[in-house]
């Protein structure tokens, strides 16, 4: 049975989907009568990393946000391989064969498993970063389950030197992949550095609220030794083929949101995506990097609402 919970601003149910021995932790904000929208998150993120202002906005407009932990994150199933971030990147750039314990295609099946558990036939799909890559596969392989597609800060290509991430971002990613059994302070310092790189410029992150969120997220994670899980997800990205053919096959209405200053996935990827997806619209946000802060959501929320309602 799902667990019923309540936060300061919203109610939700939590539970697990399980297919092929893989348990995926989900959170369903309801209500059941509203339009379901499945949110697929990025590399290393837990379901709690979705910002409240986005969840609130969707609920207020009669949508039913459903979030979940990807495999190897949060409370979902963990795997056992111990890949090397640095070695995998070298193999990728040298075009050596790469083997991963699972693929983005497997992760797309996890996403659909959540819909199956909740008895949802069709849903809007919103994916960001790696979640956008997973969502591309959902929209092409499981088109009959999709009402619309919103793609945020993502790409159809495997990351490379011309399309991101920047060297600074790569350095922090490498540091995280090596952080096994990190202390709370290790994670806090890492998060300040990471969010200062990929979030809006000039924001003071060393606040009580930010620290409380980091502590809560740290305590929630099933496995504090998250470096290998992060590296396994990254390897799934690097070992996956470009999704050009799959993306061209996406038929549902697609809204593409991208930051002009994104240091993780260069904005040129968004223009390419718009050309690849037949029924798509691109909105580029001038002061957006890679995250969906409230000020950023304010700049595209009307486009999002029009897109979902069509």
Task: Please tag this protein with its features.
single chain; 310 residues; alpha/beta; Rossmann fold; nine-stranded mixed β-sheet
CATH topology: Rossmann fold
Most strands sheet: 9 strands, mixed
Overall number of structural domains: 1
Based on CA atoms alone, the radius of gyration comes out at 18 Å
The H-and-E topology, N to C, reads as EEEEHEHHEHEHHHHHEHEH
Q: Count of DSSP E strands?
A: 9
Q: Please, what is the average pLDDT?
A: 90
Question: What order do the helices and strands come in, and which of them pair?
Answer:
Layout: E1 3-6, E2 11-19, E3 22-28, E4 35-40, H1 52-60, E5 63-68, H2 85-93, H3 104-117, E6 123-128, H4 130-141, E7 146-152, H5 167-177, H6 184-198, H7 208-220, H8 227-239, H9 244-248, E8 254-259, H10 268-276, E9 280-285, H11 294-309
Parallel strand pairs: 4-5, 4-6, 6-7, 7-8, 8-9
Antiparallel strand pairs: 1-2, 2-3, 3-5
